[in-house]
Structures are given as C-alpha cells and as structure tokens.
Amino acid sequence: MSLQRIAVLAVLLAIAGCAPERVVFVDDEVPLAAPLEAGLDSGAMGLEQDDPPTRAMRLSFAEGGVSRQPAGLDEWAPASVNLPLAASDALWVPPGGRAELQAGATGMRLSEGTGLEVLRLDSRALQLGLPRGAMEVRILQGQELDSVEVDTPAGAVLLNHPGAYRVEADPGGGSGRVTVRSGLAEVTSAGVTVPVQAGTTMDLAGGDPPSYDLVPQRAPDAFDQWCALRQKREDGSESAVYLGRDLPGHADLDGQGEWKINPAYGTAWAPRVPAGWAPYRDGRWVWSEPWGWTWVDDAPWGYATSHYGRWAQADGAWIWVPHAEGMRGTRPVYAPALVAFVGGPGPAGAAGAVAWFPLGPREPYHPAYPASRAYLQALNAGSLPPGAPASAAHANQGIPGALTVVPQSVFLGARPVAAAALAARGPAHGLRVGSAPALVPGRESVLAGPAGTPPPAFAPVTLQVRNHMPLAAVPFEARQRALAAGQGRPLGAPALTGLRRQDPGARAVPARLATSPAPGGSLRPAHPGLSPFRPAAPRPFTPPPGPRTQDPGSRPESVPQRNQPPWAQRQGEPGRQNRPNGQNRPRRIQGQGRNQPRRVNPVRPQRREGGGREGGGERRETRP
Q1: What does the alpha-carbon distance between residue 256 and residue 11 come to, in Å, rounded to a whole number?
Q2: Architecture of domain 56-237+442-473+508-624 in CATH?
Q3: Would the CA dihedral through 568, 573, 575, 577 be positive or negative?
Q4: DSSP code of 20?
C-alpha cells in the first residue's frame, strides 16, 4: 500500500470523524488479487500442521438454558444457536435441557444434566471430554472418516467407524456405559482395551480394580427417541441433495427458501426474507479462536450461508451460491465470515464505526488469521471454478443496501447488529477493502452474552484419555496482551504454544492415561467366565422399489421428495447394509473373538508442548 493512499485514507477518516488507528486492517501485506489456483481442495493440497482446522463445532440446537464457558475464562454465559465452539471451550446442559452440535459430518446430541469439554478439534479428529451426563455421537460416511474420542471418568471411547453411539458418564462412582447401535467402538480403561460391536452395551463399574460387563444393547429411552427424531430430520433433508451431508447446517435451510438455477452462478438458494434484508446484518460479531472475528447469525438457517459459499443479487433479491459450477464435490472449509470490511468516509457522526459487505461469487476470501498457501487454496476452492481466475473486484461493494455499518461498541460488545445499524450514505464504492479491522477483543467479545456463575454441577473431574493429554487453556488476559501487541491479528498455533509455556496460569482439564492400569489393577470382567454377547448377523438391507433419485449435481430444478429414505441420498449411512453377504460388518481384530478385551502394555507418556503428555508406542495385545 503506497504512502499516498495512506495519506488519502487518513484525510477521509478525519473528515468522517473516525479514529484512524481503529480502522487499520490486519491484511495490509496481502493483496486482494492473490493468484489463487482454482479447482483444488484439501484432499489435493497438504495442509500444514499450524493451519487452523478446516471445520468448527457449531451449536445447532439448544433448549432449557444451555450455557458455555469460553477457553481461558472463569465466567459462563448463555449459549445460542449457531455459536461456534473451539478447543478448551465447555458446554453445560442443565436439567430439562437438550443440545445438539455439529462438526463437519459428525453430529453430537446432549441429554439434560450433561457437561461437555472440547479437548481437541482439528480437521480429522475430535476429542471430547464427558465428565457427566449422556451424549449420542453419529459419524456419517463422508469424504473423509472422522475420528472421535470421548473421554469419561470411567474410560476413553474411541470411535473410528461410521455409526451411532451413546456414551454415558457418572462422575460420582466412576462408572459409565457405552452403547453401540451401529458401527464399532473401542473402550480403553485401566490399561485394557475392549472392542464393542454393534448391538452391544458395555457397562463400566468403578472399583478397585474396575470391571466391565457386556450385554445386549439397552432399549431406547426418551433421549434416544428425541435423537431419532432429530436424525430423521437430517436424513430427510432436501437441501442435502444440493449440498451433501458434509456441510453443517444444510437441514436448517429446508422450508426457509427455494433452490433454483441461476444462469450466471448455477445452483443457488433464495431465502424467504422481508424487504430490505441483507446478509450479515441480523446477528452479531464474537471473537472465536483461532479464527478471530466470527459472525453468529440470528436465523437458525444462517450458519451454512454465513460460513460457506458466497452471496449475490439476482433480479433485485439476494441469493446464496454454495459453490461454483462444477465444484459440487469439493470438501467444505469453514470460514469465520465471508465478508470484506471497508474503511473511509462513514455516516455522519459515526466516529469509530465498523462496516462490511458480503463477498460475491468467485471472490477469494483472505483471512486475517495466519494460514499456509495450501490452506488458502482449500478455503477458496469451492468458489473458484477450474480454470477461472480469482476476481479482484467486489460485485457487492456497489450494491445499495449491501453495506452494514455499526459503532465499534456494538461490534466489540457482541451486541445485535440490526438494532444498532447506522444509515450508510450509499454504496461502498472507492473505499478501502480488507479482511478484518484491527480491534482487540474484550471479555464481552468472547463471552458473547451476559456473564453468569458456573453451573453448580460442573466441577472438575479427572478424565481417562487414550491418545492425547488435553492442552492447557491460556488465560484470556495473556491472549489479550498478545493480540494488542499484534494490532488485533489472531494468534497462530506457534504463538499459543509460546503463551502456554510462559504463562503459569494456563490450566488443563485434569486427566490421566487410560492405557495405564488403575492403582488397584487393570480392568477385568465383572464375573468369571463372562461370555461376550454376540449379536445376530444383520440382514442385508433391501431398498423398497421406486425410481432412483436424479443426479442433483446437474439438474437441481427437479425437486426431491422430502421423505425419501436415507439410502436414496447417500450409501453407507450408519446402520445401513449396502453390500451383500454382510460385508459391512466391522473387521474382527486379528487373533481375537468379538468383544474380546486386550491388555494394553503401559507406555511412558511423551511430553507434549504446553506441559501436556500423550501416550505413544506400540501396544502388545494378549488374551486376558
């Protein structure tokens, strides 16, 4: 950026009454017309270790006063739908409440009286802490299989197969329960790993030493029935035909708009909204690491349209373009908000205002957080068709009504934008464009709601973990000082690692390795001669007769049936037998019968960055 342009910008800001230091953008050295290569995704590009995750965890449903504790803070605040959860965040579902979360193609549902801790979140693996309560985990057969580890006081549950699982934890007596309705689970406790097949419930009992029992799966209760209704909604989603099941929030679009073909952009979705509506206006801004300023939409359907795809206008109305033509199968990569911030003359009296507009199709998104070139390729691949150059212009910058302006106090305070939006003088022509304002978040930016007291039942409980010890959460004050030194630029993984080592206040969730025996000995069967339950071989699933669904990638105008069965939308769903002769049954572990435990030799924990430890080394499997 030349000195002449900086001088002109300073004059314009002075005229508008804005504070120049408050509208500095954090991407001064990143040109908007960076030569991104079209048609590449995260499967073709090797992302670097320090890149942020390609997905976030979303709160997709909440009732009954669900609350959240952000990483590094002692306060709790109400949790609303579409709120993102990051590593070291905690969630509490009080008695009478329920919650649902999504992370890519993995869905989680929480029963009342359940506490959840996000121990680790990356592009391929998810590690959760369940100190108390019950949760369901569903892993779909997507482009890439997710690995989910649920750590409880009684043991660590590893889920590496598509399926439907229920995990329960009782912190009082150190007991737990794992039910596998479909798929295959591995439960590790007190130095022993037990595979749990589909149709089986494993009961874990605390004691000296701890014990386990294997019985036929428990009958569904009220929580299971609620989970089944939520899953039926997902399975019958017509929007999944256009978006696939890897994109979180696709089912929330059903019934809220219309899918159509646009001559310029291909497949598009038009929301049913009142006149004068604009994207990224009904919601608020929160600070969520490692991405920084993140948009939280008020509409239940607003998650997918805020973090994926692009917005355009057609015939005077807004349409959402989820992907460029021919990029239907690209793995979606999460973005905190696909907008461009602008600086320059603002509305009269708008001292210290913040303004933005939505990015349009084929316009690359340059994040403010540090990322590799491979990550940027994957992030923008879905919106750049093969062979098409990235657009250096911003189509929505000149559209009346596309620009949203609010005072900085509203932006920093995570307050509702629509009620405080200032009247813009017109389109944002000629104003400087950047990826984020250089504003340092406060506690209210992270809490995203009024601070409250910790839930009385959410006390620290020692968890058993299998692969990785939890990373310490850096106190917010230490992160805030580092953010101020960098003018609001989000901290990368190396910076957070350094803060963990330097700050004595960094605290991790209490945990111990499940691969080591308990003080009273290793996990053992509940009674001598325990005969593992072997469920009957499932019968091959035969779909009912009927016409096959038309390929949704080429002719979206043919509306799919709302109640079409899951097998017609994607093969390989949990519980579906799509190959003959029972070939979908989980592979038997070499040298063992089904549900047979294997003893895990204790391994010496390896010291990880930030003071954590993890188990490693080869395990020798022997018959107990």
Answers
A1: 45
A2: Sandwich (2.60)
A3: positive
A4: G
